[in-house]
Structure formats: C-alpha cells, structure tokens
Amino acid sequence: MPSFIREVENLPYVYCSPDLCTGCRACELVCSAVHEKVFNPRRSRIRVVREEPAIDVAFTCHQCTNAPCITACPTGAIIELPSGLVSVDESRCIGCSLCVEACPFGAIYLIDGVAKKCDLCAGDPACVKRCPTNALRIVYPEQISAEKRRDRATAIARSKMEKSGVTE
Amino acid sequence: MTFDYKGYTGRYLRVDLSRGKAVELKMEKWWARYYIGGSGIAARILFDEVPPTIEPLSPENRLIFATGPITGTVYPPSGRWTAVTKSPLTGIWGEANSGGYFGPELKFSGFDLIVVQGRAPKPTYLTIDDGEVELRSAEHLWGKNTNETTTIIEEEFGEPKMRVACIGQAGENLVRFACIMNDRDRAAGRTGVGAVMGSKNLKAIAVRGDLNIEVADFDKFFELAEDAYRRYTTGEWGKACRESLGTYGTTGLVDWENEIGRLPTKGHSTGVFERAGEVGPKRIRDEFRIHRRSCMNCAIQCKYVSFVRGGKYANTICSGPEYETIVSLGTNCLNADLPSILHANMLCNLYGLDTISCGGAISFAMECFERGALSEEEVGMPLRWGDGDTVVKLTHMIAKREGIGAILAEGVRRASQIIGRGSEKWAIHVKGLEVSGQDGRSHQSVGLTHAISVIGGAHLRALSSIDELGYMDIAAQRFGEDKAKAICDRLSTEMKGVLVKDVEDLYAIVDSLLTCKYGTMWPPMFYFDDYAKVLHAATGIEDFSKPGEVRLAAERIVNVKRAFNSRLGLSRKDDTLPERFLKEPMPAGPGKGKVVELEPMLNDYYAARNWDFATGLQKRSELTRLGLEDIAEVLEKNNALILD
Fold it and tell me: Which residue in B167, B525, B528, B603 could disulfide with B194, CB within 3.0 to 4.6 Å?
C-alpha cells in the first residue's frame, strides 16, 4: 500500500463536542470500569476539563497519524499497530513520562507507572455508548471537516439572509 | 484498612476542630447493614452523639458530610452527598443534600464520611489530598464568597483539581439558613448547615484522591448500571426525561405547577400566577441559557448556566435557576422580573444562602410591610410585592445581617417573634423551616409531606409525583388496582398517608445510597427492588438481596430521624402546617376553595408507620421490630416513647 493512501485512511477517534459536553464525567467512570474493573477517574483514558464559567470538554487520544508519543518514547514501547491504532507495549514501558510530555492533548497517562491510553475499546468505545448528551462520538477526520464546512456554510447563509431581510 | 463490604472506602474521618486533630477511623460494619450509608448512617451517628442539651451552634454539635456505597460509581446518577447536623434554623434534625463532584471525590480521597466537631480557634479549612488530612489556616479565605474561596483553594493545590465544599459570608455571619456550596454552584441548601460550618470556624473542605471504588459483584453491578442508564435515556421515560428535565431542567415545573394551581405565589397566598410565563422555562432557555451542565455521572442532565446580557443586572451569571429558586425569589414574592431573580440567585450562591429560605424570609418581610407590621421608616425602604430590586437588596442585607436583614437572617419563625404585631400568621414555615415551592391545598399529599417532614417545610423528604401527575399504572402496581384511582386524585386525602409513607421510605434509600431523586420522584421508575439489586451487587451484603430488608432499612432510617426529634419534645402538635394552608381556602385554580385536610391524612400516615395516633410518638413494639431497642431505651428515658 503506497504511503499516501495510509495518510488518507486515518483511524477514527473519540471526538468531544464542547457544545454538547456537560462535564458529567460518566465517560471517566465507565472507562475506568471497563479497563480496570474499578471506579476511579484517575484510571480513565479520557478526562473531562471544566473551565468556569461555561466550558466543559473531554480529551482523549486522537490516534495521531504521526504520533508524538511514539517519537518521544525512548524504549519503542509505543507502537502503531497495523490497524493504525497507537498502542503501548506495557512490557517495554519504563514509565518515564516522556510520552505524557509529548502529547499535545494530555491524553496519555501514567497509571501504576505504566503508560496507558485510549484503545478505542476494540472499535466500540464504552465512553461513547455512555455519553448522555452524545457529545462523544467516534469519528473520522473527514466527518469533522465536513461538519465544519457545513456549519460555516450555514453561518454564511444565515448572515446573507439577515442582510437581505429574509426571515425563516 | 480493609472493610468487609464493598462500595465503601471503609474509613471515616473524625475531625475535632477544638483540638486541631483529625483521626481516621474504621467504618462500623453494622452501620452499613443497618443504615446503608449517606444520611442513614449519619442519622445514627447524630442520634448517638448529639443529645438534646447540645445547641446547634455550639462546638459540641456535629456536622457530618456523608456519601453512600454507590457514590462515585458508574451507577447513574452517583454524584450526590449529604450534610447532616442539628439545625440552627429549626433546632431539630437538619439535613441538606447536594450534587456536583464533591461527594465522589470525597470517596476517591479515602473516606465515606467526615464527622466534624468542636470549634477551631481561628478560621480553618480541611484538606484531604489522597488520604492525607490537614487542617490549614483559612484567614486568607475568611470574608471571601464561595466562588473566590473555591478558586483560591484550586490555585493553591493546582491539578488535579481539588473539589471544594465551602461557606460564603452568610455562613460566617451565622445566617440561620446559610448553605454549604460545593463545586461552586451546587448547594447543600436547607436547614442552615452552612451556619453550623461557620460556627465551627470551618471555611471549607477540599478533597481529591486516587482511591479505587470497588464493588462486590462487578459484572452484575455494571449490568445494572447499564440498565439504569438505558431506562433514564431510552423508551417512554427516557423520552420524557429528555423533553422535560433534559431540555428545561427543573424550570419546566413552573408551567405545570401553575396549571395545577400549585405554584406558590405572593407568600403562598395563592397557587396561580398570571405572569408565570415571564419566569417560565421557554423564556429562560431562549433568552438566558448559555451552557448545559450536569452533576457527576448523571443520565438526566438538568443543570444549566444562565447569563443576563443587558439591563440593570447585565453580566449576571449563575447556575440555574432551579424551579424552587424561581418560586422563592420570584413568584412567591410576586416578582416576575427574571434578571432580578437570576441576580438574587447568583448572590445566594456567592454568599452561601439557601434560596428557598432566603426567598421565604423576603416574601415574609413583604407581607409584613403590606399589612403594616413593618414600616418604611423602620426598614429604611419600602418592601413592595413584586419589586425585584427589593429582592436583590434584601438578599445582600440578609447575608451581611444589615438592618432588617439581621432579623430576617434568623429565619421567618424567629423573625416573626421579634417583629410581633401578629406577624406569626404570615411566617410560612413548618417546624421553623420555610416552606418549599408546593401548596398542599391543590395537591393534598404534599400538605402531608410538608407537615410530617423531619426537617420541616421541605419537599424532598416525601414528595410524590404519582398523584401530582396521575400515574395510574404505577399507583396500581405499588398499591393495588383498587387503590389507584384514589391515590391519583390530587385533591382527595384518601390513601395519602400510605402514599407519603411509601415515598418517604423510598427517599430514605435514595439519600443513603446516595443517588438522585430524579428517577424515583420523577420519573417514578426506580423502586425498592431496583435498589435492593444495586445495593446487593455493590456491597455484597446478603440482607440487601431482599427488597423487604431494604424497605426495613428505610423504615429504620426514618424512625431514627423521627426519634431524634421526639427526644427533643416534638410530637403530633408539630406535624402541622401554617394556618394559611389549613384555614385560608385556595383562591384560584383547580384547587380553588380547598384547604389542606391534614388530620385524616396524618392519622393514616401514623397508622402506616405504626406510631401513636394521639401523640405521634413511636411505640416500643415498632422500634423493636426494626431492631432499634437501644433507641427505644433512650426515648423511654426522655418520656418520648409509647410503652406497648
């Protein structure tokens, strides 16, 4: 497979819409439950950030094509699987935190001294299923860009209509 | 420290502020078996440690912060916690419940409960950082509002965020209905728990931690949690949740309660407000809402952030408003000026005031003014019904105890005793607690709910939606086909004693688990059998596999709280309502011409509880059946027990 095709066929990732997220952290609890069989947000691979007065948004691994955590790892413990999933080989992880420093999203974690990250729950993420506002979705980058284009076009259309005095 | 039962951390913290000491203690196994957790276990501790001689604002009073076995788990909703104390507002059993993130984080920090006693010589705050407990000086926090206090503590500790429960200036000033605010905008509102915190010189409790919450049967528990989530979000109930609470939060109630004539208006003088649309759900959503929020792990998501864009109260930003606040600071003051309601709501959150009691005090003052018991010369300003600016001004004055605010800060019962001039009649309270946003005249069972409530005039002890909204099928399932029609008649007193007893028991479980009343109160989905399954899977306590045992625990909890009050001398005479509900007929709406016919409902309720008709006191036989022989003994010594 030529390399440029691989670049187009990105893996999907768990996307959080800040417009819909309410900061309930159900995703954190369900993540720690399915991965560790305990309830503890600090064992979750997805984390919610709340900023006052009115921002809530969850962050998890974007399954980067050119993942900084892979580049940063000194022992080669972080690898890209044939599916494109960025994964940690725990036997080689030395718990140095370089991947944590490298991730632009704060979406890789050191838990019990070992790097842990979103594994997409084998394609059916528990957090997405459990998100009560559908803020979390599993998306391909192409979906997000299409939605952005649509939102932008709608905004332009609305302003044009307002200018010409057309009401809905 | 290991504990035999799962779901719990197995530890609790006892903090003696007088001695500046905090001790980590092991949870008692029988507490869990007998009282489940949350307000159940706290009830037992308070009963044992706070005899009648202890004054609410004295160092000897206890203030308990409690979580339950499902707090912090994936079973939705699991973000609630409860504060329990002897109330400085009512002098009896005090309890306030809150959501947010503080409760779960308290468990992650290592403890199921915190029992606070004593009085710190100087302003102090308590931190638990992953099991490490410290009492720190709060001199720099004293005088700060709840938002500032939270920000300062968060910045001191950095990430991961501390979860903060604190008091504002109202708690410091011992306003008798001061609340405890946690996570900035969630309130443990009622019965003046914030004043108790202030009396102890305890400004805040901040917690964070990394403890795993484990359950006894993970697979079963997880399956039950998934099922609960499905019930909250799909099917008929799920759709109803989404369309009401999920869309409008509790504000949707404004329209409905007005329709059934139960929207408290002008000091509870009527249940119909012609300007209700101006403070209704659609206007709040369209003009003021900027963001939707939630408590921890909630499947309903009824919280919002509102923002006032222009006008006199421009840039007001606050969580809510909730239905109860719209009533207390709005309709019940005849105030339809929504920005002023939002602003007063924000002030209550920042100062740390219970919006229900604060609004109750303001509407009381307005009625005193109208009827000449307070004059403009005395107060320094007119207190006219419907004036939103007055509501805002009085909120400031109450929190700071300035002018008339110093009197109103005592709550309406004491305020009416100070003012005199016949004002006692307009003090709308039960057992000293300002009455919440319902009216028993057009919904008889809620009259009983208010009258028998162990904390006084509150709805969350035993409010039933089965008759409020007429759920015939649920009524038939729980009470029998032949009873359903009577139960669902809002204006009839028939079967209401049995209904309220049942709901009160159910809420005792909800407040001990601890979960949210949405799911039981409305929609009425979850019942004893559901919670028996959850409790069994979470804790591994065999007894809880039987719904009957869970119901027994509920009755036990209700009886311990009742015993706390009987020991203080309360009896049937206190299970009553203000004259307004008993003697003044409802002037408008579907309940027009009705008063609350309390006596027959009260008799039925006592019968359902197996309490003495004449006195409302508990019987030895009933307490023995519940395994509360030791409580019976204490009551006997206090002449508060029927020896049968």
Answer: B167
